[in-house]
C-alpha cells in the first residue's frame, strides 16, 4: 500500500511553513486551536494528490508574496510537487520520469482524501458503494426487487385474508338451519306423500270396519241359518283369518304429522335466509384460509430470497468482519450506521474506502475533536493493526496530538523563515526547502 512518507507545505491557505513526516501506520494527529492552519494541511494534501478539483478557492496564503508550494514524498518513491505562480502539478517517479494526475489517480482513492464525503452520504448510498465494490450490487438489487414484489403481494393477500376473516366473524350463524336452502315444491311433495300414506291408513281402517261388520253379519246369519252352518263354516273361518291379518296390519299403523312441513312451508324464506347466511360464513372462512395459505407461501418465498441475500453477502469479500448490508443499509456488529460508535463509523468508512483502491494506504480526517481519547486510541490501534495511515486534525493541544500548529507553523519545529511584511521577500527562505 502506498502511503505518505513526508510532506512540506508553504503559503497554502493558513499554513506558512509546515513539515510533517506522518507515522507509517496509525494516527498522525495535527492539533492546535481554531484558525491556526490544521485543516489547511489536509486541504493542501487533497489538492496535491487529488487534482485541481480540490484546489482551494484562495490557495495562496493571505499576506504572502510567495506563491504556494507543496512537496509530497510517497512510500513508492513518487514525488508530488506544486509550486510557482500557477502551482502546476509535477509528479516524478523513482526513475526520474515525469508523471501527472493520471498516475496519481491510478492509486489515490478520491474518498481517502475526502472521507467526510463518504460519511455524509445517505445510508443507502454508503451501502451501494460497498455492494458495488464487492461486486454483488446488481445481484443484490435484483433479489431486493424480487423480495419487494413478493412482500407487496403478500401484504395485499394478507389484507384480503384479514378482510375475509373479519367478514366471516361478523356474519350470523344458525345452528338449527339445514345445510342447503329449502325448496317449497319439495316440502309440498313431502306433504302430499304423507297425506297419501295417511289416506292408505284410513282405507285400511275402513276395510277393518267393513270386515268387522261382515263378520258380525255372518255370525248372525250363522245363528239364523243353523241349517246352513256346515256350508258357511268354511267361509266364516276364512273370514276370521282375514280379520286377524287386518287387525295385525292396523296395530302397527302410525299416522305422520305434517305440522313441521306446514311450518317450514310458511317459514321457508326465513329458513333459506339462515341457510344463505351460513353458506356465506362458510365461504368467507374458506376464502380466508385460502388467502392465509397464499400468504404463508409468499412468506416462504421471501425467506428463501433473504437466505439467498445472506449467502450472497456471506460469500462476498467484505472489507470488515461482521460488516454487511441489510435492507439497503450498512450493518456492523448488528448495528446500523446511526447506532454505531464514532470509532466504528470511522472503521467502516476507512475499510470501505480502502477496498475501493487497495493500493491507497492513507486517509485524511478532519475535526476529530468530537471523538474522546479512548475512542481515538481504539481507532488508532485498529489503523496500526490494519497497516493503514491516517492524517487527522483535532482542536486540541493535548498529548494525543503528533504535532501542534500555531499561526501556520509547527510548534517546536525550527523555523527557518520568519514572518515578513507583505512587500518584502524572505531572505533566508527558498520555496520547498526547510
Topology readout:
Blueprint: E1 4-12, E2 15-20, E3 26-32, H1 38-50, E4 69-74, E5 79-83, E6 88-92, E7 98-99, H2 101-105, H3 115-119, H4 123-134, H5 137-170, H6 184-224, H7 229-251, H8 259-266, H9 268-314, E8 323-326, E9 329-332, E10 335-336, H10 342-356, E11 362-365, H11 373-386, E12 389-395, E13 403-406, E14 409-410
Parallel strand pairs: 3-12, 3-13, 11-12
Antiparallel strand pairs: 1-2, 1-4, 4-5, 5-6, 6-7, 8-9, 9-10, 13-14
Helix pairs in contact: 5-9, 6-7, 6-8, 10-11
GO molecular function: ATP hydrolysis activity
Organism: Anaerobacillus isosaccharinicus
Protein name: AAA family ATPase
Span between termini: 28 Å
Q: Low-confidence segments, ≥5 residues, pLDDT <50?
A: 416-432
H/E series: EEEHEEEEHHHHHHHHEEEHEHEEE
CATH class group of the domain at 4-108 and 357-410: Alpha Beta
How many β strands by DSSP? Answer: 14
CATH architecture of the domain at 4-108 and 357-410: 3-Layer(aba) Sandwich
The percent range for strand residues is: 15-25%
Which term fits the overall shape?
A: rod-shaped
**Radius of gyration of CA atoms, rounded to a whole number:** 52 Å
Q: For the record, what is the CATH homologous superfamily label of the domain at 4-108 and 357-410? A: P-loop containing nucleotide triphosphate hydrolases
User: What proportion of the residues is helical, as a percent range?
Assistant: 40-55%
Protein name: AAA family ATPase
InterPro entries: P-loop_NTPase, Rad50/SbcC_AAA
Pfam families: AAA_23
GO molecular function: ATP hydrolysis activity
Amino acid at each position: 500500500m502506498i502511503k505518505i512518507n513526508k510532506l512540506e507545505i508553504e503559503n497554502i491557505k493558513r499554513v506558512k511553513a509546515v513539515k510533517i513526516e506522518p507515522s507509517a501506520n496509525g494516527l498522525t494527529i495535527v492539533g492546535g486551536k481554531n484558525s491556526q492552519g490544521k485543516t489547511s494541511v489536509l486541504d493542501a494534501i487533497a489538492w496535491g494528490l487529488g487534482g485541481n478539483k480540490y484546489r482551494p478557492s484562495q490557495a495562496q496564503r493571505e499576506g504572502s508574496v510567495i506563491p504556494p508550494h507543496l512537496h509530497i514524498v510517497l512510500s513508492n518513491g513518487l514525488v508530488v510537487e506544486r509550486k510557482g505562480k500557477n502551482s502546476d502539478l509535477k509528479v516524478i517517479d523513482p526513475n526520474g520520469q515525469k508523471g501527472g494526475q493520471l498516475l496519481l489517480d491510478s492509486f489515490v482513492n478520491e474518498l481517502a482524501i475526502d472521507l467526510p464525503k463518504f460519511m455524509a452520504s445517505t445510508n443507502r448510498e454508503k451501502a451501494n458503494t460497498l455492494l458495488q465494490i464487492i461486486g454483488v450490487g446488481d445481484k443484490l438489487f435484483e433479489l431486493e426487487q424480487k423480495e419487494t414484489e413478493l412482500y407487496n403481494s403478500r401484504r395485499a393477500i394478507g389484507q384480503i385474508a384479514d378482510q375475509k376473516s373479519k367478514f366471516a366473524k361478523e356474519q350470523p350463524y344458525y345452528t338449527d338451519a339445514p345445510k342447503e336452502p329449502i325448496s317449497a315444491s319439495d316440502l309440498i311433495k313431502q306433504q302430499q306423500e304423507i297425506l297419501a300414506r295417511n289416506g292408505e291408513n284410513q282405507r285400511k281402517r275402513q276395510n277393518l270396519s267393513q270386515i268387522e261388520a261382515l263378520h258380525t253379519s255372518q255370525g248372525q246369519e250363522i245363528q239364523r241359518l243353523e241349517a246352513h252352518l256346515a256350508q258357511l263354516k268354511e267361509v266364516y273361518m276364512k273370514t276370521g283369518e282375514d280379520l286377524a291379518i287386518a287387525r295385525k296390519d292396523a296395530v302397527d299403523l302410525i299416522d305422520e304429522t305434517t305440522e313441521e312441513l306446514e311450518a317450514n312451508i310458511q317459514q321457508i324464506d326465513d329458513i333459506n335466509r339462515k341457510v344463505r347466511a351460513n353458506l356465506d360464513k362458510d365461504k368467507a372462512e374458506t376464502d380466508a384460509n385460502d388467502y392465509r395459505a397464499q400468504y404463508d407461501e409468499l412468506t416462504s418465498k421471501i425467506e428463501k430470497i433473504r437466505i439467498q441475500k445472506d449467502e450472497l453477502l456471506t460469500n462476498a469479500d467484505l472489507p470488515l468482519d461482521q460488516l454487511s448490508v441489510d435492507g439497503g443499509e450498512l450493518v456492523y456488529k448488528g448495528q446500523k450506521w446511526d447506532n454505531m460508535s464514532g470509532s466504528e463509523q470511522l472503521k467502516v468508512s476507512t475499510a470501505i474506502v480502502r477496498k475501493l483502491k487497495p493500493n491507497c494506504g492513507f486517509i485524511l480526517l478532519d475535526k476529530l475533536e468530537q471523538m474522546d481519547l479512548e475512542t481515538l486510541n481504539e481507532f488508532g490501534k485498529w489503523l496500526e493493526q490494519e497497516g493503514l495511515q491516517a492524517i487527522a486534525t483535532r482542536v486540541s493541544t493535548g498529548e494525543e496530538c503528533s504535532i501542534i500548529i500555531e499561526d501556520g507553523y509547527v510548534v517546536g519545529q525550527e523555523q527557518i523563515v520568519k514572518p515578513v511584511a507583505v512587500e518584502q521577500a524572505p531572505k533566508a527562505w527558498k520555496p520547498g526547502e526547510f
